[in-house]
Amino acid sequence: MSLLLLAPMEGLLDHPLRETLSRVGGLDRCVSEFIRVTGTLLPERAFTRVVPELLQGGRTRAGTPVRAQLLGSDEQCLAENAARLASLGPAGIDLNFGCPAKVVNRHGGGAMLLQDPELVFRIVAAVRRAVPAHMPVSAKMRLGFNDDSRAEDNARAIEAAGADELVVHARTKVHGYKPPAYWERVADIRAAVRIPMVANGEIWTVEDARRCREASGCESLMLGRGIVSNPGLALAIRGEGGGIAWAELLPLMLDFWVHVCRRVDPRHRAGRLKQWLNYLRRTYPEAQSTYDAVRTVNDPRQAAAAVFGEEAAHIDIPKPQRRTWAQALHPAADEALA
């Protein structure tokens, strides 16, 4: 089966962007940002804060399933939290063995765990036992921490522990996000296990997707920064379109902005808009000029006005008026306020 998945990327691919990119189409599933588990059983609101889709059947408004990701190193605590999370109805539970962030690795989580395949096995096995048999449990790993010498061992551990699927980001923690991605090593790992595998890393274009499939042997792919830069990438990989014009993207960006205004503190809102525009510059000349216009702007009203027009400066007014304005400007935005 050939699947296209949206990657979990802390601080980038959060709920507002998942909602917007899934509306574009072409994605079979999203994976949430990680929910950090550190020694306590989290309340339900801790899960729904990161994955609001749990409140709407575990899917985005476009109907794309969302698998919730957990990060931690204590297998028993992860199992207890996985059981609570499972009761909220996600489209599955994913386990993070790939985060390269120093603060995460310093506390024994993410890619750091790849130095201990036995612990990786215990974590996956404990979570698998803790959640209902019908609920998928998957894992996302890098090739390794300092090097890729234990890549196959970790993949075998994940499979033996009962995982239903494995995503491999084709770089080590040391590689970070620097190109290239070592897709050929994904093929080696694929030869070592039988569970379904997904290749991830440096897929920016349709040609990248073709080369990744050829080198990795994986038909299923996970898209991260590439689809943030080109929201039509999944459709293009499927051969269902040549891209999305800037004029078509703007209403979707407005939808994203509405979500940001509802979920993000005002002081950080302009930064979220600039962050996405920064990626979009790779694909759209219009994004470059728009980014230049807001690059030094930190006031969210000014940023919104510069991108969407003066009316957008009023988006952060009381909800009834805001809904009337949003619906008048673009009907799709009204759904985000409901």
Q: What percent of residues adopt helix (DSSP H or I)?
A: 40-55%
Counting DSSP E segments of at least 2 residues, the number of strands comes to 8
Count of DSSP-assigned helices:
16
Strand content: 5-15%
Assign an overall shape: globular
**Uncertain parts:** 317-338
Task: Characterize the main sheet.
Answer: 8 strands, parallel, barrel
**N-to-C series of helices and strands:** EHEHEHEHHEHEHEHEHHHHHHHH
Quaternary state of this entry equals single chain
**Strand order, biggest sheet?**
1-2-3-4-5-6-7-8
What is the CA-based Rg, rounded?
A: 20 Å
- Mean pLDDT metric: 92
The class by helix and strand makeup works out as alpha/beta
> What is the rounded distance between the termini?
36 Å
What is the structure about, briefly put?
This protein has helices at residues 15-24, 44-50, 75-86, 102-106, 117-130, 151-160, 183-192, 206-216, 225-229, 233-237, 246-263, 266-280, 285-294, 300-308, 319-329, 331-337; strands spanning 4-6, 29-36, 66-71, 93-97, 137-142, 165-169, 197-200, 220-223. It has 338 residues and is an alpha/beta fold.
